[in-house]
Amino acid sequence: MTNQPTALDLPAVDPLPPETQKYFDICADKLGLIPNVLRAYAFDIAKLDAFTALYNDLMLGESGLSKLEREMIAVVTSSVNRCWYCQVAHGAAVRTLSGDPALGEAMVMNWRVADLDARQRAMLEFTEKVATSSATIEEHDRQALRVAGFSDRDIWDIASVAGFFAMSNRLASATGMQPNAEYHAQAR
Predict the structure, then answer these.
(1) From CA 30, how far away is CA 56, in angstroms rounded?
(2) Does 8 score more than 70 pLDDT?
(3) Which fold, 67-185?
């Protein structure tokens, strides 16, 4: 496993607490790597735990959104914010979950050229607005999502995932966080 440092190479707690080591071991087993974002947070276990709890809830918890849809939101937000780390990592997730390398590339480069259904297009238009100009969102924007088949809970989840990645994008970019090299070859 490659341990690529970030521009801010803060030393990890050593040794990691048993629960944290177990989480890292699960990542290594399931993903074949420990994401560099987790390594970056490992200097402060409380911050790492808060980050992973929110990430796991938003991306893996109960939702009317599929895992693929949540990853698409992550990539579109990250593309708007030009976050290298998240475009690479979550672009790989879109390729893996969809089985479509072209979809993963389109999400990173220009989601509007992707072969998407009306529901996905509505979701990603809203996502882009959350990422670029959330203060301009009005009831008609939420209503467009309802018309596309999203519940109010789904709208909350779309906004939550986009908001989480907007924050993560800024932190990853500001600290020079680098994606794991393994992501580049996944699902191609």
Answers:
(1) 14
(2) yes
(3) AhpD-like (1.20.1290)
